[in-house]
Write a structure and sequence with these properties.
The protein is of the alpha+beta class. The protein folds into three domains: 85 residues, no CATH class; 112 residues, Beta Barrel (Butyryl-CoA Dehydrogenase, subunit A, domain 2), CATH 2.40.110; 153 residues, Butyryl-CoA Dehydrogenase, subunit A, domain 3. 46% of the residues lie in helices and 14% in strands. The protein has 13 helices and ten strands. It has a four-stranded mixed sheet with strand order 1-4-5-8. The protein has a four-stranded antiparallel sheet with strand order 2-3-7-6, with no helix packed on it. Helix 5 packs across helix 7 and helix 10 packs antiparallel against helix 12. The model has no long low-confidence stretch (mean pLDDT 89).
C-alpha cells in the first residue's frame, strides 16, 4: 500500500483547498457549525451542490460519460478529506450516490437521459422508500402493493423513516408486485414523482430534531397513487437485485475524513469547557477516552486507505465494505457521545435554537454557547447510524458468510 502523495496529487490538494476557501462562504460555515447531520437547509444545500456541479466535482465517483471528473481513487480521497476538514456539507446521498448508480446499471437509456442530468445539477432531490412500519431489517417482508392497472402501477401502503422526504421531488421505492414466489422475487424498483396525487408526507419529530428547521425523517402514505410502468427500473421482480446493488454504495463510503472533523470538534469543545478549574481536555479521564477514540479512528483510517488502495489495483471491497460501515458508525456514535458529555448542562433537551437564529426565524432565547447547541441533536441523530443501511448485527452476519462461509 503506497501512502506517499505525488507532486501532482499535492497540487490537486492545493487546488481543492483554494476552491473551498472561495466557495464555502461564511454563512454556510456558520450554519454547518450548527448542523446535527452534515447538511445545510434545503436552499443552502442546493446552492452548495450546484457550486460543486459548476466546478465538475459534485459526483466524484461517476463515470466520465455521465459527468464525473475522471479522478483517481487518491484524488477522491484527497477531495473528501479536504471537504471534511473544512466542515463542508455532505452531498445528499439519495440521488448522487445511490439511485444514480442503479440507473446507470439497470435503467433504460430513456431513464438515464431523463433523471441523471437533473440529479447531477441538483435540480431534483430524491428520497429512499425502503422501510415500512413492519419491515425494517427484514426488508424482504415489505408489503406496499403495486398492482398493474393498464399502463400504470397503482400503489397503496406506506414507507417510514424516509429521510428528507419533505424536500424530495422523486422517490426510488421498493414495492411488492407479486406474492406468488419467495418474498425477494416479488419486489420491484419504481421511480415515483412525489407530486403525484395520493401521496402524503407526514413528519416524524424525534429527540434529535427539537429545532423545527432540522426535522429530517418522515412517514409517506400512498393512496391509489398511479405510477407509469415506464418508471419501473429493470424487470418486474428484479427490485431486490437493484436494492442490494444500491446498498454497496450506501455502505462503501469514505468515513474517516468526516470522523476526523467530528473528533476535532470534540477537542475544541473540551478546550473551552471547564471542570475542576481547568479545561476539560486537561482532565486525565477525558484525555484517556479521547485518545482511545483517536487510536480507533487511526486504525479505521488506515483500513480505508488499504481498501481504496486495493480498489485502485482492481480488487473488490468484499466484506471490507461491511467492516468499514460497522466500525465507522460505531465510532460516530462514540464521538458524538463524548461531545454530548463535554457540553455538560448545555446538553439538555430544549437546546438553544441556533438554526432559527441563522435563518432569521423567531427563536426563544436560551442560555449556552453556540458550539454546544448541536451536541444533543447530533448525539440523538447518530443513534440511528448502526441501524440504517443494515444493522451492526447484519454487517457481522454478512462478514461471517463472506469470510467463513457460515
Amino acid at each position: 500500500m503506497d501512502l506517499a502523495y505525488s507532486p501532482e496529487e499535492n497540487r490537486f490538494r492545493d487546488e481543492v483547498r483554494a476552491w473551498i476557501t472561495q466557495n464555502f462562504d461564511a454563512p454556510m460555515r456558520a450554519m454547518m457549525a450548527q448542523s446535527k447531520n452534515g447538511y445545510l437547509d434545503k436552499e443552502g444545500q442546493r446552492l452548495w451542490q450546484q457550486r460543486l456541479y459548476e466546478r465538475g466535482w459534485v459526483a466524484p465517483e461517476w463515470p466520465v460519460e455521465y459527468g464525473g471528473p475522471d479522478w483517481t481513487h487518491t484524488q477522491r480521497s484527497i477531495f473528501y478529506e479536504e471537504c471534511a476538514g473544512a466542515g463542508c456539507p455532505q452531498v445528499i446521498a439519495m440521488g448522487v450516490k445511490m439511485v444514480a448508480y442503479v440507473l446507470m446499471k439497470y435503467g433504460t437509456a430513456e431513464q438515464r437521459a431523463r433523471f441523471l442530468p437533473p440529479i447531477l445539477r441538483s435540480e431534483e432531490f430524491w428520497c429512499q422508500g425502503y422501510s415500512e412500519p413492519g419491515s425494517g431489517s427484514d426488508l424482504a417482508s415489505l408489503q406496499m402493493k403495486a398492482e398493474r392497472g393498464g399502463d400504470d402501477y397503482v400503489l397503496n401502503g406506506s414507507k417510514t423513516w424516509t429521510t428528507l422526504a419533505q424536500w424530495a421531488d422523486w422517490m426510488f421505492c421498493l414495492v411488492r408486485t407479486s406474492k406468488e414466489s419467495k418474498p425477494q422475487a416479488g419486489i420491484s424498483f419504481l421511480l415515483i414523482d412525489m407530486r403525484s396525487p395520493g401521496i402524503t408526507v407526514a413528519p416524524i419529530v424525534t429527540l434529535d430534531s427539537p429545532m423545527p428547521g432540522q426535522q429530517e425523517i418522515n412517514q409517506v402514505f400512498f393512496d391509489n397513487v398511479r405510477v407509469p410502468v415506464s418508471q419501473l427500473v429493470g424487470e418486474e421482480g428484479q427490485g431486490w437485485t437493484c436494492a442490494k446493488y444500491l446498498l454497496e454504495f450506501e455502505r462503501g463510503n469514505a468515513w474517516a475524513p468526516t470522523l476526523k472533523h467530528q473528533l476535532r470538534k470534540v477537542r475544541e469543545i473540551a478546550l473551552k469547557e471547564y471542570a475542576a478549574g481547568a479545561p476539560l481536555f486537561e482532565q486525565a479521564d477525558f484525555r484517556r477516552r479521547y485518545a482511545e477514540l483517536e487510536i480507533r479512528l487511526s486504525a479505521a483510517d488506515a483500513s480505508e486507505l488499504r481498501v481504496f488502495s486495493g480498489l485502485k489495483a482492481g480488487q473488490s471491497a468484499g466484506a471490507d465494505a461491511n467492516m468499514l460501515k460497522l466500525v465507522a458508525t460505531e465510532l460516530q456514535q462514540d464521538i458524538t457521545e463524548l461531545a454530548f458529555e463535554a457540553v455538560g448542562i448545555y446538553g439538555q433537551a430544549k437546546v438553544r435554537d441556533t438554526w432559527a437564529e441563522l435563518q432569521n426565524r423567531p427563536a426563544d432565547p436560551r442560555p449556552g454557547p453556540v458550539y454546544a447547541a448541536p451536541a444533543a441533536p447530533a448525539y440523538f441523530n447518530y443513534r440511528k447510524v448502526t441501524i440504517y443501511g443494515g444493522t451492526s448485527e447484519i454487517q457481522r452476519n454478512i462478514m461471517s458468510k463472506i469470510l467463513f462461509g457460515l
